[in-house]
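Internal ticket - ligand job 682, NAP:
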Amino acid sequence: MKLGNLVQDQWVEGDGDGRILTSAVTGEPVATITSDGLDFAAILDHAKSVGGPSLRKLTFHERGDMLKALAKHLNDIKKEFYALSTQTGATRRDSWPDIDGGISTMFVFSSKGRREMPNDHVYLDGGVEQLSREGTFVGQHIFTPKLGAAIHINAFNFPCWGMLEKLAPTLLAGVPAIIKPASSTAYLTELMVRRMIESGILPPGSVQLICGGVGDLFDHLTCQDTIAFTGSKTTAEMLQLHPRVVSESVAFTAETDSLNMSILGPDATPGTPEFDLYIKEVTNEMTSKAGQKCTAIRRILAPSAIAADVVRALSSALGEIRIGNPGSKEVDMGALASQGQRDEVRERVTDLSAEAEVVFGGTDDFELVDADSTKGAFFMPTLLHCEKPLSSKAVHSVEAFGPVSTVLPYDSIDEAIELAKLGEGSLAGSIITNDNAVARELVLGTAAYHGRMVIINRHCAAESTGHGSPLAHLVHGGPGRAGGGEEMGGVRGVLHYMQRTAIQGSPETLSVIGHRWIRGADQKDPGVHPFRKTFEQLEIGDTFKSKSREVTLDDIDHFAEFTGDNFYAHMDEEAAARNPFFEGRVAHGYLIVSFAAGLFVDPDFGPVLANYGVDDLRFIQPVNYGDSLKVRLACKQKTLRGDSGYGEVRWDAEVTNQDDEICAQYDVLTMVATDEHWESVR
Ligand code: NAP
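stdout (structure tokens):
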């Protein structure tokens, strides 16, 4: 089967016979791959002229809905992906993070997009910056989608997750993607893309696929394009130095290899739950995906006093691993992605052996379940021990991308930190300890060299996602050798595909641009109490101004007695005056907020359905008895919640006293019925 290229919304074959891709298990051909003859400039142009505009028409919420539909569709048909995944050498357990993990990443982005981003086309970054004394000139950072294409270049080890973890934030950002999977496992990516396109969920031009080389694609890139690369450091460096990437300042995110470490804390001696957890975690990291994970533990940092116990326990656990046909239920570890990959790992073990002794594995003489060692790319888990890790180089720099790891003994916490740093930048690090002081020392000593760190002890182990699993909510990436890039991390991952712009102007101008009312912008007279208006009828800037109400000493006494809040600042004149903030008894903050609600609500049954919270509440000026309070409530931001029949309305509330001094400021969060819903219930 010749893999298809998805070009300008059509499946086309590349010229020539192409390269033969073989099964990692049987060595038999699975597909051929070529992108020769494709018009790469036209691919880029299609993304920009068709994909970008069709995605940018949608709001973040609509794009989130699209991701959810896509994830559901893939989930319904995932059996087919699991079946083909076996050919990559993956067991069912290995395929789970790739296939289910990729789909769940899409679900997470869908939900984050709908919950944490506005139902709009512009994303506001942080609050308003006051730039002038009178407040007539203010600043706001915004994010808008880049107007080019996102080029995704993926590694062979996660043909599904690798694609989906980049695609989800890209589409959510409103940017079309051009996907280039690693050749050796591209057949699985191609199948998934085919199924996504067949679903009809994606707008035209939003996704294109290149199976094979990228031709002269890079020669046509502009500053509006982005590249998200996953693979080896060598390839990343080469691509980053492409003249066009340099001259056009094309945003380049690199996720490369790393010599990830895991530290066993000094407290975690044999017999403790942490020691057992460590052995389990390292064994799992060495053998899942046959060690072909960029986050896998390569360096095992163990206290010198128990390094021999660690070697013994790991050797025993690795000895239990059954290697062979990944399709067989008996098998714990499948094959590497190709025979070439296996030869490469063998060579790297030879490099490591110059400094470290092989203490387990390292031989071709091992038992295989239901497989032929001459045809498949099988490799025995291999453990090394390095006696003098501080003065060694290879153990901190040679990545054997397979089930290979080295035990590095340390004598003190400072030494463990030094060893961790010798990896020169990693994607993931872990610490297994039940001593939180040790955990803090190690994290502060090594975090700057890591993109993610997981600390595991008996209290969190059962629910821990483990050392090697990148999560859609958390950033994935790392400094130095790991590429210096960052992906995912929830909404952060979406913003990589957007441009941040600082806009400056009058509060009214910025309110109109950002669809969020800013203090100092126009306060519109809604004609009626704004609580009488439906979601659609409400306009940003609709303002209600209350009458005033005096706060009496009786009110304060009553509130204290009613709530039980008898804090001295409200109850004891003399003690309150000794407090640097007050001159005597003051009203409770929550009394102010409660009185404010009494002043601004419209009590009758109406479109406002519920108050679901308050944000950014600040008490600015103390309220003394005898003061008179009034409230200004302005409709600040509206977020329609799909077809739910309501939307969220955020109100800017400001409570002032008789001298117009601001006593409290906050956002009131309400749910307001849509026209349709209100008509059906009124
Ligand atoms: P690789 O050889 O660097 O290839 C990575 C990707 O780059 C593949 O899609 C490859 O395509 C493509 N590529 C190679 N040369 C290219 C060129 N001149 N122009 C455009 N694209 C080009 O790495 P790999 O061997 O596939 O992957 C293994 C490495 O990736 C390991 O070192 C591992 O640590 C790292 N990795 C990192 C992460 C992470 O998240 N940080 C995840 C997985 C793997 P072809 O396959 O067609 O050559």
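Auto-summary: The radius of gyration is 30 Å. The pocket of NAP is lined by residues 153-157, 180, 182-183, 214, 230-232, 235, 239, 255-257, 294, 399, 401, 427 (CB under 6 Å).
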